[in-house]
Write a structure and sequence with these properties.
Blueprint: E1 2-5, E2 8-14, H1 15-21, E3 30-32, H2 40-44, H3 51-63, H4 69-79, E4 86-90, E5 93-97, H5 107-121, E6 129-134, H6 138-147, E7 153-160, H7 166-173, E8 179-185, H8 188-199, H9 202-207, E9 209-212, H10 218-224, H11 226-237, E10 243-248, H12 253-263, E11 268-275, H13 280-287, H14 311-317, H15 322-326, E12 329-333, H16 336-350, H17 356-372, E13 378-383, H18 396-400, H19 406-411, E14 418-422, H20 425-433
Parallel strand pairs: 5-13, 6-7, 6-9, 7-8, 8-14, 10-11, 10-13, 11-12
Antiparallel strand pairs: 1-2, 1-3, 4-5
């Protein structure tokens, strides 16, 4: 597998280098030089395959021999060991539950696969791998559990102080061992900027072997394609093939993976990028200008991103042609008030509890149908996190209906271990150098 920088097609690397270096020195992102042509036989028989079968096939097609088949199969077997069911709410509305992994968030797919890939490529006696990750909520927990106890790795998680939920903070700060947490006085964008600066700092790169576990790392993006193919397979078993996906979108890795699956031949009719008031991308669809802005705090905190990194990958998939993009993707943004309304409406209508990110994706489907008149397609909204992570969002009756998973109960009472830092690179670099 060969990859190139989105900023310079002439900068090419193999998969191993892209995994460990995460980001080219020209500050672009890595993308495959070539995307596999659609395998019509595989697509036509998709409903006959399990999630692990699909993951092995899709990963193999994308990696193009970068990891031998038997080794790749072992990685998939170990990493993708939890389900991703499509749950029917009514005849044309389904929810794709992506919160059945250890950290109760969709990012378990990327974090577990990536940690196993890195472990596979690590050679005995090599310099310790320093994994840097910025999180707006769920990424850090998934990465922490994905890398906890992995030999020869040190993980540093940066999260914005006071802007993650209590359960998310417990997942970030109670691990110990090779996982350490930095509580940054700033926003997620500040955390992400610090990580990006570290990757292009000469002194840090000479001293440490740095890599990222954010969705800027291509090894995070690849496994997220698996659940799109798997969702479509489940729908085909029910005779549903005309599919629209509504995706809660913050850093745009999730919908980027869906569009990569579409490029590989998955016959999706439409993608909806659903955001909160951090609406850089919806504004782009209106004005044609991509204008990053400071992020603001919302109920759907994992989507509080004002400058989504993966947007360059999405534009790369469409050869930087906005009109081609708009034929496949629409975008919408919602306020906290609209998010709460959606949470309550889904519960009243289906007796189903959604997290605030998921509520936004559901609301986007309702608006898409009204706007387009397309009530015949099967609409699937992605549920990206377990609702128990957001207890302050729900009214008493709704909150009482949420089943608390065992892994959350085990976190209660564990001591917080975090270092507080200002959002300036000098402080961050000094911490790393020490």
């Amino acid at each position: 597998m060969k990859l190139h920088s989105t900023n310079n097609p002439g900068v090419t690397v193999d998969f191993k280098e892209a995994v460990f270096n995460s980001m080219p020195q020209d500050k672009g992102l890595y993308m495959p030089i070539s995307i596999p042509e659609p395998d019509r036989e595989f697509i036509d028989r998709l409903e006959t395959f399990s999630l692990k079968d699909i993951a092995f096939k899709v990963a193999g097609d994308l990696l193009q021999g970068a990891i031998p088949h038997e080794d790749l199969k072992a990685i998939v077997e170990e990493a993708i060991n939890f389900p991703a069911p499509v749950v029917k709410l009514d005849e044309s509305t389904y929810v794709l539950e992506l919160f059945h992994g250890p950290s109760l968030a969709f990012k378990d797919f990327g974090a577990r696969f990536m940690s196993r890939v890195m472990g596979y490529f690590m050679q005995e006696g090599e310099k310790t791998l320093n994994v840097l990750v910025a999180t707006s909520g769920d990424t850090g927990g998934a990465v922490a559990l994905g890398f906890l106890g992995v030999p020869n790795t040190q993980v540093t998680i940066l999260y914005p102080k006071g802007k993650v939920s209590p359960i998310q903070e417990l997942q970030l700060t109670t691990n110990g061992g090779n996982i350490r947490a930095l509580e940054i006085n700033g926003t997620f964008d500040d955390c992400q900027a610090l990580v990006k600066q570290a990757f292009v700092d000469k002194e840090l790169n000479e001293r440490f072997r740095l890599t990222s576990a954010n969705s800027i790392n291509i090894a995070r993006l690849i496994p997220q394609t698996f659940y799109y193919f798997n969702a479509y397979a489940q729908l085909k078993r029910e005779g549903k093939e005309d599919v629209v996906f509504s995706v809660p979108s913050g850093n745009f890795g999730n919908i980027g993976a869906g569009l990569l699956a579409w490029k590989m031949g998955l016959p999706v009719k439409q993608f909806i990028a659903a955001t909160n008031t951090n609406d850089t991308v919806p504004q782009f669809f209106k004005s044609g200008l991509f204008e990053p802005k400071p992020s603001v705090a919302t109920l759907s905190n994992a989507m509080d991103v004002g400058n989504p990194s993966n947007w360059v990958r999405i534009m790369n998939l469409f050869a930087d042609d906005p009109e081609a993009l708009k034929k496949v993707v629409t975008a919408a943004s919602y306020t906290d008030e609209q998010t709460r309304e959606a949470v309550n409406t889904v519960f009243d209508q289906y007796n189903y509890v959604v997290c605030p990110h998921t509520a936004i994706a559901w609301r986007a489907i309702a608006d898409y149908r009204e706007r387009s008149g397309d009530y015949d397609s099967t609409a699937v909204f992605l549920s990206t996190a377990h609702p128990c992570k957001f207890p302050d969002v729900y009214e008493e009756t709704m909150a009482a209906s949420i089943q608390i998973p065992d892994q959350v109960s085990l976190l209660q009472g564990k001591p917080k271990q975090a270092v507080e830092l200002d959002a300036d690179f000098k402080s961050f670099k000094e911490f790393l150098m020490k």
